[in-house]
């Protein structure tokens, strides 16, 4: 999710307490009795630890990897999903323990003081390996050796991710041949295209033995082309019945200011203007959260922070025990503040020509939802865009129940998930699992037809 907290004043003190972290480890984990109750042995990652982002720095990305529970292919061919959280500055442990990981945190009898982790039937590692990366450095359990090393743009984010993923692949010879799908939500609507684009560019320059086996990218409720997306809020809220015409006009004025500042490349001011638009929309609607207009209370992501601040849990996950875990880092959010309104649409355009792309949204998200995404997709420069826009939007059912809608042409797929907000896997675990599995395996409504492959095959950039 996107973080909206203001930057802190104690940047150096926060980072200076973090020690150097060695490279990844998968040694046996000593589990004390309290941890065994909260994190059963079977809930622990297959591997976890730290991945270096540079040979000359102590900065490292924390990872937690869960092997496929019931793979249908040999391990060397089993797809590998990578999950990146948004923010900017939020930990992928939210995705792990609150959304799509094999075990999810929940409260006992709605008592936030008594939390447990329970098996998640909608986990994304049912058929695939699943790798969570705390990205960028400084987020979650990841380590920034100095404030200057925290990324301030998507190029640096991608550079660090490429190094970390390359290091992960080297941990096991079987990883090398596994197809990689990079996934994420919200501000990862930038991270995912950035690492995908960076990988394709570098793969073209590297010998085959050093390339990453990128097969596709998936973006959920993403912020990808911010100026286009911020301009949709007034109309979306108005035609959804949340604001009246006078409020719509007021919100449009605020939106145009954010767009104007973006065009002027006044990045900090544009970011502040977008924040103002969202705050105005929040005040006008009075909703518990813009992330899901059906919710009476916000998402309980703070539960993840509660369990991951326990020393025994950190030890079991092989995380640095000196780090005080927080779900979102204000420090990293501040470092990327000038990046917020910059578009990465051109990266998605490159990816859709050279791999495959899935865009999905929860229907009830008022921040980065369906209307917001469709607005920028219509402006894509891609040979297949006209065919995609005229493709049938099909009714999608999971286990015979209406789950949403699928629109697809060639390498681009778009899914709308009903009954879900910003955190789609949290709200609709089984639908999200069916979606990601069908997309990766090209089944059901997300299968490629021979006609579509032939129609655009000659125009793909290889």
TrEMBL record:
Record flagged with keyword Hydrolase: yes
Record-level GO cellular component terms: extracellular region
Coiled-coil ranges (or none): none
Keyword field: Carboxypeptidase, Glycoprotein, Hydrolase, Protease, Secreted, Signal
Compartments it resides in: Secreted
GO molecular function (one): serine-type carboxypeptidase activity
Signal sequence, renumbered to the chain: 1-26
Top-level taxon in the UniProt lineage: Eukaryota
InterPro entries, A to Z: AB_hydrolase_fold, Peptidase_S10, Ser_caboxypep_his_AS, Ser_caboxypep_ser_AS
Record-level GO BP terms: proteolysis
Enzyme class at the top of the EC tree: hydrolase
Membrane-spanning residues: none
Enzyme Commission number(s): 3.4.16.-
Main location: secreted
UniProt family annotation: Belongs to the peptidase S10 family.
Protein's UniProt name: Carboxypeptidase
Gene from which the chain derives: LOC115740038
